[in-house]
From TrEMBL:
Keyword set, alphabetical order: ATP-binding, Isoprene biosynthesis, Kinase, Nucleotide-binding, Transferase
Function: Catalyzes the phosphorylation of the position 2 hydroxy group of 4-diphosphocytidyl-2C-methyl-D-erythritol.
UniProt protein name: 4-diphosphocytidyl-2-C-methyl-D-erythritol kinase
HAMAP family per record: IspE
Matches recorded under InterPro entries: GHMP_kinase_C_sf, GHMP_kinase_N_dom, IspE, Ribosomal_Su5_D2-typ_SF, Ribsml_uS5_D2-typ_fold_subgr
Record lineage: Bacteria, Fusobacteriati, Fusobacteriota, Fusobacteriia, Fusobacteriales
The protein's Enzyme Commission number: 2.7.1.148
Family per similarity comment: Belongs to the GHMP kinase family. IspE subfamily.
Organism this protein belongs to: Ilyobacter polytropus (strain ATCC 51220 / DSM 2926 / LMG 16218 / CuHBu1)
PANTHER family: 4-DIPHOSPHOCYTIDYL-2-C-METHYL-D-ERYTHRITOL KINASE, CHLOROPLASTIC
Chain positions recorded as ATP binding sites: P96, H97, Q98, A99, G100, L101, G102, G103, G104, S105, S106
Pfam family, one: GHMP_kinases_N
Length: 286
């Protein structure tokens, strides 16, 4: 049995760090929304016992047990007690890597749902969240895959209303950033700016783009800008363009802008010309 699925990216519309647990995990309060930028996954359930075999179009993506897909595979069969099934999986990566767009967690979440479906849904949503939250922080979100307010370490997912009518510009610079560095630097922030999550939620519900834009902040971006000169220079260049606001998604390094549909195609074309060496995408909420 062969199944072909699309595994979408996400953006963070505001991200606040609320604290840190004794195990090192950080407590978050943020809004996440799925967008129509996709990886493609082909899953061949052979029907035989055996391992998961992963192939991909990207040489820099590991295909062994360190891959998030393999971790999900092992966690599912360990939790359910079902004998491991031979699965041949091909991952066509299109979502930028090390971008803060959730590509790896998306792959893991969608694969977990397909594994569960193939075996007759032995796990409910709460059980899937429980086994996946330690594998990829954003997997619980992708199990729901709707605009959500996220709390805890990423496992508390609440669907929220999103009526915002806009397009989304995504810009991935030609470098990645360290998620660990972002969290480590957070303690150095002296005058952090908080996202107003409540006002963002109202703006999403009432289709008020300016209310959303005026209240987005990202603590991880602020933490990275302390020491990362490449990121700081890139952010300064984006700010110098003046024609829209840009915000980092998650732990970066990708930035996004929410723009009116009537202006989006022209902005996209201009950014493609101005940002040579960057990946530029024109997307919408999915």
């Amino acid at each position: 049995m062969i199944k072909k699925i699309k595994s979408n990216a996400k953006i963070n519309i505001g991200l606040n760090i609320k604290g840190k647990l004794s195990n090192g995990y950080h407590l978050l309060d943020m809004v996440m929304a799925p967008i129509n930028l996709y990886d493609e996954i082909e899953i061949n359930f052979t029907g035989d016992p055996g391992p998961l075999i992963i192939k991909t179009n990207r040489e820099d993506i590991p295909t062994g047990k360190e891959n998030i897909l393999y971790k999900v595979y092992e966690a599912f069969y360990n939790k359910t007690g079902i004998s491991n099934q031979n699965i041949e999986l091909y991952l066509e990566k299109k979502i930028p890597h090390q971008a803060g767009l959730g590509g790896g967690s998306s792959n893991g979440g969608f694969f977990l749902k397909e594994l569960n479906l193939y075996h007759g849904n032995p796990l409910d949503l709460e059980e899937m969240v429980d086994i996946s939250k330690g594998i990829g922080a954003d997997i619980p979100f992708f199990l729901v895959n709707k605009t959500c307010r996220i709390n805890g370490i990423g496992e508390k997912v609440q669907i929220v209303e999103n009526n915002l009518e806009c397009d989304i510009l995504i810009i991935k610079p030609p470098f990645g950033v360290s998620t660990g560095k972002a969290y480590n630097n957070f303690s150095k922030l002296e005058n952090k700016k908080d996202a107003n999550i409540e006002k963002i939620l109202v703006g999403l519900k009432e289709n008020k783009l300016s209310d959303v834009l005026n209240n987005i902040e990202n603590h991880l971006e602020q933490a990275l800008l302390i020491e990362n000169e490449d990121l700081r220079s890139f952010k300064n260049f984006l700010d110098s363009l003046k024609f829209t606001y840009f915000f980092m998604s998650g732990s970066g390094s990708a930035y996004f802008s929410l723009v009116e549909k009537k202006n989006s195609q022209e902005m996209y074309s201009n950014l493609k010309c101005l940002l040579e060496g960057c990946e530029v995408y024109l997307c919408s909420f999915s």
